[in-house]
Amino acid sequence: MPTARLWLNSWPAAPLLPRSVPLVVGSDESRLRAAAAGYGQVTLLQAPLDLRSGAQQGDAAAFRGGLGFDDSVPLVVAVGEPGPQATDAGLLAACDAVGELACWGTPVRLAVVGAGSSRLLVEGAAELANARAGRRVVAVADPQDDLRPAYAAADVILGMGEAALRGLAFAKPLVVQGERGFWELLTPDTAPALIRQGWCGRGIEADGRAAGTIRLTSILRELLDEPGTRIRLGRYSRSLVAERYSLERAAAAQEEVYAEAIRPASRPSVIDLAADAARTSSGVLRHQAIRRWPRRMRDRPV
Question: Are strands 174-177 and 183-185 parallel, antiparallel or unpaired?
């Protein structure tokens, strides 16, 4: 029996898959949606991380030195994800928040990594933050293939999706970014919702940058004022990774999926297969019709 791997961002294609096919999904939200759609065998298998000795080694001193930041001031590292507009607003809010904190006299520096297509906007926000603070408190790092030095240098990590998840392995406190001003500190209380949402979120404010700046400023101020809190939450981050995202756990889960799929008792009945075939055929035809409709309207004579 084949096994399909379904990620949240590819969910629109899922109705075309037979419901008798075991699914392996990448977020708890996808698992719930697949189960609600009638898929009987749905396994959650999130992106695993290599936690072996040496996997989290990075030259933190070189990263800080390359930006002109020393070790005496806490460093916040914001890691952007390519593509989503939420990243743009979030990185801009991060620059604004650190600029605000620096104006209040809070010792803090910010390094933005992975600004991508929004780099010019982020550099502009960084210049404004530095001007407000009267010194260089925000730096935009050059693109880097290896982000381990950035994670290793951080005292606090900001990010979303896989960028946030990778940061957990470095035993640093994490503030998860999302859309419309969403920022959430990872704690034992907030972890279930963040895991379910795929390490992102959505706020309720129309002006995501302004709302995000206020929210993030409050979170960072608490973290920067309490080194003990940073240590405690960093340890929690590492324990969460080991429990849910290690390579060993992912391998064991994948093996269980395959073992279950080839068990004779797991094979669907002829009636179920026939119903699946009819449902899938109908879904394919409907999907093709929806795709062709805009083309027909575009090509229709005026």
Answer: antiparallel
**Domain coverage including residue 237:** 60-244
What would the pLDDT profile of 186-242 be if each residue is shown by its tens digit?
999 999 999 888 888 888 877 778 999 999 999 999 999 999 999 999 999 999 998
In a domain, 53, yes or no: no
The first and second tokens of residue 155, run together, are 């005292």
Q: From CA 295, how far away is CA 302, in angstroms rounded?
A: 14
Is residue 54 in a domain?
A: no
Find out whether 175 and 220 touch, Cβ atoms under 8 Å. yes
- Let me know whether 41 and 95 are in one domain: no
Question: What tokens does 90 get?
Answer: 């979030």
Contacts with 155 (C-beta within 8 Å, 6 or more apart), sequence order: 74, 75, 76, 172, 173, 230
* E strand or H helix that includes residue 80: none
Residues 6+ apart with CB under 8 A from 218: none
Strand partners of residue 202: 179
Whether 114 and 82 have beta carbons less than 8 Å apart is answered as yes
pTM, 2 dp: 0.76
